[in-house]
Each structure stands twice: as C-alpha cells, then as structure tokens.
Amino acid sequence: MTAVLGPTNTGKTHLAIERMCAHSSGIIGFPLRLLAREVYDRVVALKGPGQVALVTGEEKIVPPDARWFLCTAESMPDRDVAFMALDEAQLGADLERGHVFTDRLLHRRGRDETMILGSEALKPMIRALVPDAEIIARPRFSTLTYAGARKISRLPKRSAIVAFSAEEVYAVAEMLRRLRGGAAVVMGALSPRTRNAQVEMFQAGEVDYLVATDAIGMGLNMDVAHVAFAGLHKFDGRRRRRLTVAEMAQIAGRAGRHHRDGSFGALAEEGPDSFLPEEVLAIEEHRFPRLDHLYWREGDPDLSSIDALIASLERKPAPGVLRAAPLATDLQVLKRLADEPWVRDRVRRPAMVARLWAACGIPDFRKVGIDPHARFVSRVFGHLSEGLGHVPHQWFADEIARLDNMAGDVETLAGRLSAIRSWAYIAQRADWLADPRHWAERTREIEERLSDGLHASLTQRFVDKRTTALIRRIGADAGALPVTIGPEGEVLVEDHPIGRLEGFRFTVEAGARANDKRLLLAAAEKRLGTERSRRAETLIAAEHDAITLAEDRLVWDGHGVARLIAGPSLGRPVLRLERDLDCLAPLQREQVKARLDAWLTRSLDRQLPALVRLAGLAREAKASPAIRAVAAALEDAGGIAPRQPLRLMIDALSPDERRRLRGMGITIGTLDVFDPRLLKPGAATWRRTLMTLWGQTPDLARPGATILRRDEPGRGVASGYRPLGEQAVRIDLVERIARAAHDAREGRGPFTPDASLATSIGLEAATLDRLMGDLGFRKIRGGENEPARWIWRGRPPARPAPRVTASPGNAFAALADWGRTP
C-alpha cells in the first residue's frame, strides 16, 4: 500500500488517475458524487465510455465490460481489481461518515496496488493502522499566502467566496450580483449537471466570482486565484463550531493551480470570523495538528436478527486509535424502526434483516431531520417487506411526477432536486422495483430537467450579464459610456436601461439595483445634470395650468416638485421644495422656488380669495379689535363657521365693518358665517388641504350635493352642511330659506312660509320643521286641512364667550384685543 499525503494542490488525485489507468482494472472512492462524476468524465475521455463505470447512491453507469470504476466511498463495489484508491481518507475523522472511510482504509485492497490519498494529518493513523504502508509526501506545487480581509466589493477577479449554509451562499451571491455583475454557485447538494453548468460559467469567464460551500475543498478542480471565507463557523449536524485549521487549509488550498500561486483571506477584518495569526501561519506553512483517532463501525454487521444487527453496529473497537462512531442517521432510523412491532413481525429471517438495513441506508438528501426521514424509510420498508417486495409502481410514479415541475424559485427547485435524489437512490436498487431500469432512467431525466431549471434560475437570480459586460468594457472610466434619455424618462447606458428619470428623481431599475449605482450612476451623472437643468428651466417658464395641486403636493409634468406646509396661519401656507430638487444649482433652485411661490399666490387668490383677505385683515393694525377677531376666527375655521359662537363679536361690528366683510365675499348668515365660493368643489378641495396642514380634516361631500343623508360624508358645518335630523343642508341654501322665511313674515304675527324652495331642493317635512325651529320660529298647529303656520319667537340668546380654534399669533391676539373692548 502507498499513502500519498500532502496539502491541496499537490496533484494527488491526478496521480491516482494515472496509476489506475496504467492497470488493467481499478476502483477509486471519492467523498462526493460531484467529484466522482468529474473524474469519471476525465477517465471516459482516456478509456472510452464502454470500459468506465460511475457508481454513486443515485446514479449508476456500469457498462458490461467496465474495468475502471469511479465511485463515492459508500458505493465502492467489492470487486477484485488490480488497483484500489481512497481519496480524502482523513474523512475517517468525520462524525457522520468517518466510519465508512475507515472501513475502506482498513479492508479495501487492489491486487497489484492500493493507494490512500489524504492530508498530512492522516500520517499517524496510517502508521498505526497500516504499518507496512509506504508514505509519500507530496509538496504543494505553488505558494499559498494570506491576503488579509477584504470587503466583497474589493475582492480580486477569479475569487471563490466560501459560506457554510445555503442561505449564506445565496446572500453572498446576491451581493456579488449587485457589486460585480454576478457569481456562479456551487454546493454539494447540487446535481453534477447543475454544478458543471455553474462551474462552466466561471471557467469560461462569464462571471469572475464563485460562491460555494465547503464542498469545493474536496478536490473539485477550478481555476480559482483567491479564496475568501464569508465565515469561519459552521453547523456540523450537531452544533455550530469554528472550523479546524485543517478544514480551513483544505478549503483555502483551492486557490492557485499547479505552479500558479494562490491567496486566501476573510471578509471580516475583526471578530469571530477573522483569522487568528497562528491559523494563518499554520495554513501558509501547511502545518496542522495530526489526527489521533478515526471513527469505526463494524463494516460487516451480523444480520441474523435486528438485535444482533444493532449490537454489532454499536460494538466498540479494540483499544487504540479507533473510536466508536457516533450514532449516524442510518443507525438512528434502524433503532426507531426496531421499536415498531410490525417491523419485528416481518423481520424474522437474515435476508429480511439485510433488506431492512439496506432501507435504513437511504440518505436524508432532503435534510428534513430524523423523524420525517424515519417515517419515509418506514413506508419504503413496509412495501419492501410485503407481497413481491417491490415499491408500488403507482406510488413511485405519483411521487416523481409531483417533482417533475420546473416552476418556482431557486429554493423550490433545489428542494425538488434533493427530493428526486431519494427516488433515484431507490431506483438504483435492483430488487426494490419491478422495473428498476425504467425508473432509474425516469428519475435521471427528471433530475436533468430540474438541474437545467435550477441552473437557469441561479443564473437569472445571481448573474447580471449587462453589468458584467459594462464593467469589463470600461473598467473605472464610467464617463466613457454613452448615456441617452428616452421620451418617457428612461435612462439608457449603451442601450441598456439602467433606470428612469421621473421629474428630477432618478430611480434605478430593479435589474440594476444597489451597487449598480456606483458604476451606472457615475456613467449617467453628467447627462442627468444637463437634463435636470433643462427641466428646471421648463418649470420656471411653465404656464399656470401646467402645475396642479394633489393633496398637499404641487405636481408638474406628473411629478411632485414641492409640498405645502403650515405657515403663520391657515390662510398663509408656505412651500417647501422636494428633496429631488436639491440636485439643482442654488441659483436655479431659488428661481424654481420663486416660480412656485408665484403659482401658489395666484392659486390662492383664485380659489380662496376671501381666506387670503381674512388673513390680512386679522393682522391689520388699523382695524378694530372686533373685526380682527371675526376675521381671525373665520380664517382659522377655513372661511366657514357657525354664527352662534361668534355672535358677540359680530354684534360688536359697525355697519361699515359688516359691509367690508360682505365686500370680501363673506355672508353673515342667520345660522352661519361663510364664503359661498368655498362650497364649490375646487375651492373645497383647496380649503380641506389647508385645514389638514393645521390638523383639521373636514370630510368632502360629493360634488354638487345640496342635501346629504345621515350616512354620507361631509355632514357638518365645517364641511359646509348643516345637520338637521336625517338630512344635512348646504349652508348657502339654509341661508336662502332663512331669508325667504323672514321676507314672508309680517312682524311677529303668524304666517305660512312658501315651501317651494325647500321642496325644490329636496327637504323633507321633518327637516324643514327642524330648520324653521333653528331659525327662531315656532310652529302653530292649524286645522285638519289647513297648512302649518309659524310665528317669530326671536333669535336664540348669545353664548357668554366665543369658541374658536386659533393659530399662534392670529386669533389669540385678535381675541385678546377684542376682550379689552369696553
């Protein structure tokens, strides 16, 4: 036996392939299906497909005249061959699979030559277990050096970033997509077809980065110059722990090929995921702690009964360097099934015990945990132990048909791919199905389709070919790219859409997110500045009707350019430009502000003329306190207020002051004081916007409504409608009815009002009665066929104090002056 030991990048696997091909037959056992497939393809190229076999749990290609076998360690056939090799034999110290590698190390031999490949840490174990083995040390062909910690954005090309969970792999790949245009993804759970397609992208230079799990440390050959660790901790199936130095070196050693030097580093400069100085030194000098034990489990267990099988599998090795293997998944499943009475009833012969143990060996490809996996194995064994001992055709067909679906995201497709591996494993068992060859082919076809779908999904999600091409073409000179702006505001760099200029805001499109901004925004910045300046000039020269109000935003060309905010009082709002306009030069920005201020002044004069004048009157030094108080209170109410709270102030007005208010458009009605122009839809919208700025938000009634029902919005004097029982009447119509009633009465004698106006606007009898009562009339009951008559009883008494809402410096000051009036 020859043991070839050394760090990665020593050509150990290549040497084993050469030695095997020099013999008449041979077997090599590998730690991964991916690696077995890779070497199988290489040997087929040398020897032809008719003489080379691939044997893994899920895939078997065994020509009748096969002489050279490439296998996973678990699937190595017990054949008489001239050459036998075991790769990555130091995995005998692995908690889950170590006993398999130890068994192959101890018992598998070639007639002419046996070769054990592994790290230098395995040397003491070889000396202890195979004393007569020749140990050959293979030095690394190139130098491996520590390059320090680097952010993802600063990683060199041809880098591999290693993470230790699918979630971390996807997160890093997404970040590389944003920063560098994309990355290939390699994980042990991928099928060889998907893995090869992803690696081919990396090898062909379509992407410059690769994101992988620690599976790349197991001999997968790729042209990697730098390995970056996204973390230094992983979950090993039992606990989350820090990587050993040997594991770090195994992964870092993927950097560099043959005589080309490589480097390694971390993404974190400090903290638990940064390298310690002693770790760096050990990796660079290839000095690691030697293994002091390997895990062992009986490789040829006693199949006479379930109890004998379990006892033999739990038997401890003789004292020395071998330790009893921890409880592996297959043994856990066996012990659970052994507790089932129906299982013991069926397993009474050694042949059935062997069948049960074979079923327990189905790997948990889906990583669902021991309980769900044990239930799955239990169902499979239930079929294997009854009737003809075959898994039912219909169940198998239904389950794989459910997986034959290419729709879904990366995680969904990866889940289906893991699931089909379980059925492929079952199909490879010659005596588990009535037609195993047919179902092996069917599962292979589905796996290939899922693999192609997953590759396409991974590429679509994690590769941005546009950004990659742009980065390669221009390097750091973003200004070299031609930038155009389309008629709809679309911004294109070299005919690639990178975003949209909406008004003055540039929004990067979803396909050019986050870090595309660094390159693509730099390319677009100069052209965007010119376009924004042109748009600002167009806005400055815009016609009045080109700018509109949408709630509290000023909108031009379909885009918000400013917002209204509360000013000194309700009738004096102020403008604040949107932050999108901060990109303009200061002078141009001031010009835009002046233009919008002018628009606001004109719009207020058009829509709310009385409100603007009330704001001025409330601050007019020469005006009397009474009229200033009325103006201030009416302004704070938005130009519409009930008369009763203001009666004492209104009564203090002189005839000239009343005429002045009427000249401003204010109606001092019997029940309400208001500007009737505010009841128009456009003015009502403006008024509501201004009141909202001050924390008052009256409901808007439906446009043109004269009467509102109880359940309709807008019932209230603040909205311009006076509630009267089941109905609410628009306040200008209330005033018209009041005027008509007063015109019809003669002194304080009874009279019959003309009800035609009330009827024409839809007032119900009960509403009219309520209104007449509020106006100061009392109803007199007449005869049975006589119309109702009314008598004037006088207006209601004034309240002792006014009640208004005031803005600072406005109504409070005016009311204070009014209160001092004798």
From TrEMBL:
<keyword id="KW-0347">Helicase</keyword>
<feature type="domain" description="Helicase C-terminal">
    <location>
        <begin position="147"/>
        <end position="314"/>
    </location>
</feature>
<dbReference type="Pfam" id="PF22527">
    <property type="entry name" value="DEXQc_Suv3"/>
</dbReference>
<protein>
    <submittedName>
        <fullName>ATP-dependent RNA helicase SUPV3L1/SUV3</fullName>
        <ecNumber>3.6.4.13</ecNumber>
    </submittedName>
</protein>
<dbReference type="GO" id="GO:0016787">
    <property type="term" value="F:hydrolase activity"/>
</dbReference>
<dbReference type="InterPro" id="IPR050699">
    <property type="entry name" value="RNA-DNA_Helicase"/>
</dbReference>
<dbReference type="Pfam" id="PF00271">
    <property type="entry name" value="Helicase_C"/>
</dbReference>
<dbReference type="InterPro" id="IPR027417">
    <property type="entry name" value="P-loop_NTPase"/>
</dbReference>
<keyword id="KW-0378">Hydrolase</keyword>
<dbReference type="InterPro" id="IPR001650">
    <property type="entry name" value="Helicase_C-like"/>
</dbReference>
<keyword id="KW-0067">ATP-binding</keyword>
<dbReference type="InterPro" id="IPR055206">
    <property type="entry name" value="DEXQc_SUV3"/>
</dbReference>
<dbReference type="GO" id="GO:0003724">
    <property type="term" value="F:RNA helicase activity"/>
</dbReference>
<keyword id="KW-0547">Nucleotide-binding</keyword>
